[in-house]
Design brief:
By secondary structure, this protein is α+β, with helices and mostly antiparallel strands. Helix content is 59%, strand content 16%.
Length: 295
């Protein structure tokens, strides 16, 4: 705009210099009109530029206001996050403390559970020992008797087996009844009878004791026959009573009272035997033999 004004003034001066006054006035007026046009155009352009700048300023002001509002929201969010962070830190510390307490309680509970499991196991062993009592050896009748445990059950099958088996033994002797004994008990009964009779070549006392004292009670090993006595061969025989004594060492113990004698209808002799019965492969077996009375 300054260049335009300068150009106009220069043109006016040159024109004035070479013309008459009238012409100079006309030229001057023309120049003034030209300058006014130029000024008007310049003002309009400047007004438009100023309007555009004002619009830009307004837009920038609005953007700045929006940015300030967003910044405030952001600062508020940051403040909230800081608060939440502090809260989470406190909660985290509390969680750590609670976790440590839970761990401590868990250790205590595990110790208590272990103690309870040991107590339960001990009780179960006690219950098992009551329901299925055991002793290390069966060579002491008094110890056996004191540890027998009564169990309520149906003994009719065992009693029937006794009646059938003992009648057969009374008829055929032990040589007809090997299958009703365990191998160990059968060998013991044979040695006891052999030692009782004392025939030449029979087992000697020291050998008998050394062989059987740790397994059977030799105080009650004096018998000449399992369910008879004497050497006449009983003509009369009666299994008077079968009494269940109790359970011990995975077997059932019975006391058998046998009556009989050498003559017909002779029941003058009374024998009392205690036997341990086990079930093996579906069959009953005598696993221990005690002669409480043999007269």
């Amino acid at each position: 705009m300054k260049n335009l004004l300068l150009f106009g003034a220069l043109t006016l001066c040159l024109t004035t210099y070479g013309q008459s006054k009238k012409q100079q006035i006309v030229a001057l007026n023309y120049s003034i009109d030209s300058l006014n046009v130029i000024l008007s155009i310049t003002r309009n352009k400047a007004a438009k530029d100023i309007g555009g700048l004002n619009t830009t300023i307004e837009n920038l002001s609005k953007e700045i206001s929006d940015l300030k509002r967003d910044l405030f929201k952001l600062e508020s969010s940051v403040s909230t996050l800081e608060k939440d962070k502090s809260k989470l830190a406190l909660e985290n510390e509390k969680f750590k403390t609670d976790l440590e307490e839970i761990s401590r309680i868990n250790v205590e509970l595990e110790a208590k559970v272990k103690i309870l499991n040991n107590e339960i196991a001990s009780k179960e062993r006690d219950i098992d020992s009551l329901s299925n009592p055991k002793i290390d050896k069966e060579n002491n009748w008094l110890l056996i008797e004191s540890n027998l445990k009564w169990i309520e059950k149906d003994y009719s099958t065992t009693i029937e087996w006794f009646n059938k088996t003992i009648s057969r033994l009374n008829k055929f002797g032990i040589y007809g009844g090997q299958d009703i004994y365990t191998p160990t008990c059968y060998s013991y009964v044979m040695d006891a009878m052999d030692h009782y009779w004392g025939y030449p070549g029979s087992i000697e006392e020291e050998e008998f004791k050394s062989k059987w004292k740790s397994i059977f009670d030799l105080k009650y090993s004096s018998f000449g026959h399992e369910f008879q006595n004497g050497n006449c061969g009983w003509a009369s025989f009666e299994l008077e009573n079968i009494e269940f004594l109790g359970s011990l060492n995975d077997g059932e113990w019975y006391k058998l009272t046998v009556l009989g004698g050498c003559g017909e209808n002779d029941y003058s002799q009374t024998l009392v035997r205690v036997v341990k019965i086990i079930e093996e492969n579906g069959s009953f077996k005598i696993a221990n033999f005690i002669s409480l009375r043999d007269e």
